[in-house]
């Protein structure tokens, strides 16, 4: 095993449905998060100290992307969110994949994702603000690789 690894944030790819162009204009710092909404297991202890482990079959998740205020992708995502509010038809597959480094790579995928809401519009006098878009998902498969 090598003690040297490469990570290129430009090779972290987010896909949602059949977007007419790729998402771009990510903010500095953490720009994508994938997570499950609930723990996979919980446990209950009894009065005598015996423990039962209970599996939670809920695999719902969320994918959060953070864009710069000036990113043109904000407009495209706004159209999708507004269409979904009006028509209820903007549920699509989504995935996140880190294409840098060696296998196995970090990846997350779902067949059913939708925008939770349009993000807050904040404005600053000196700095560019960010826009945080959260996609809720049905069952979200996540694999955290070594990169």
Can you tell me about this structure?
- With 147 residues, the protein is mostly beta strands.
- The chain has a single domain, classed as Pnp Oxidase, Chain A.
- It is built from one helix and nine strands, in the order βββββαββββ.
- The chain has one helix at residues 73-87, and strands spanning 12-16, 32-36, 41-45, 51-55, 60-68, 92-98, 107-115, 130-139, 141-143.
- The strands form two sheets. Strands 1, 2, 5, 6, 7, 8 and 9 form a seven-stranded antiparallel β-sheet that branches.
- The longest helix has 15 residues, at 73-87.
- The two termini are 13 Å apart.
- The model has no long low-confidence stretch (mean pLDDT 93).
The CATH topology name reads: Pnp Oxidase, Chain A
What is the tally of beta strands? Answer: 9
Q: Strand fraction band?
A: 35-45%
CATH class: Mainly Beta
What is the helix fraction of residues, given as a range?
Answer: 10-25%
Report the radius of gyration as a whole number of Å.
Answer: 18 Å
Q: What is the name of the CATH architecture?
A: Roll
Number of helices: 1
């Amino acid at each position: 095993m090598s003690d040297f690894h490469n990570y290129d944030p430009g090779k972290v790819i987010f896909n949602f449905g059949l977007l007419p162009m790729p998402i771009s204009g990510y903010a500095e710092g953490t720009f994508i998060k994938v997570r499950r909404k609930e723990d996979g297991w919980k446990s209950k202890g009894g009065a005598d100290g015996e423990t039962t482990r209970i599996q939670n079959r809920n695999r719902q998740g969320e994918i959060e992307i953070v864009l710069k205020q000036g990113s043109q992708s904000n407009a495209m995502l706004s159209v999708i969110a507004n269409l979904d509010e009006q028509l209820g038809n903007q549920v699509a597959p989504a995935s996140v994949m880190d294409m840098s480094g060696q296998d196995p790579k970090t990846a997350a995928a779902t067949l059913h994702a939708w925008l939770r809401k349009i993000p807050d519009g904040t404005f600053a006098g000196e700095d560019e603000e960010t826009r945080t878009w959260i996609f809720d998902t049905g069952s979200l498969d996540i694999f955290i690789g070594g990169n």
